[in-house]
UniProtKB/TrEMBL annotation:
Coiled coil: none annotated. Pfam families: His_Phos_1. It comes from the Bacteria. PANTHER family: ADENOSYLCOBALAMIN_ALPHA-RIBAZOLE PHOSPHATASE, BROAD-SPECIFICITY PHOSPHATASE YOR283W-RELATED. GO terms for cellular component: cytoplasm. SMART domains: PGAM. It comes from Clostridium pasteurianum BC1. This is Fructose-2,6-bisphosphatase. The lineage of its organism: Bacteria, Bacillati, Bacillota, Clostridia, Eubacteriales. One of its GO terms (molecular function) is phosphatase activity.
Amino acid sequence: MTQFYFIRHGEQDWDSIEKYNLKGQAMDLIPLTDNGIKQAKKASKDVRIGNSNIIISSPYTRALQTASIISKETGVDLHVEFDLREWQSDLNFNYDSKDQLIELWHDYTMHGGVYPQDELKLWETKENLRKRIDSVLVRYLNYSRVTVVAHAEIFAALVPVDKILHCSILEYTKI
């Protein structure tokens, strides 16, 4: 049995998107705010995280920065997992603004993450997201305690919660 500790990344610096005129996939390069760094340092003090055998992280900057802070503070090794990336709002990676991202998110939530019959959408379905995340987690079942730093929607696909705050910790057991 493996105990997973899911940590949502720290607060991200949305202002960087406009400052650097980031579009599409480049929007995933934004770093943490100073507050996000403090959130990550605080999360690293949680005994559950310090007792983890390994930390795995999304490759997106905000998650990887959070995970690297936690790894440094705890001394727990960090591995990057590409499939822990955020829910894909646009499977073609072509969205070009925060407004379009929000529009795609609203469409996804309106449909409960399921494509309406006879319709194709740009976004990744909740079922495909679950399968993608599960394919990562099963590779770590040989560990007893694993910290996973990633994104709210990833965790919400596995754990029924309404809201996941930055650097909050959710427990998830997988047998």
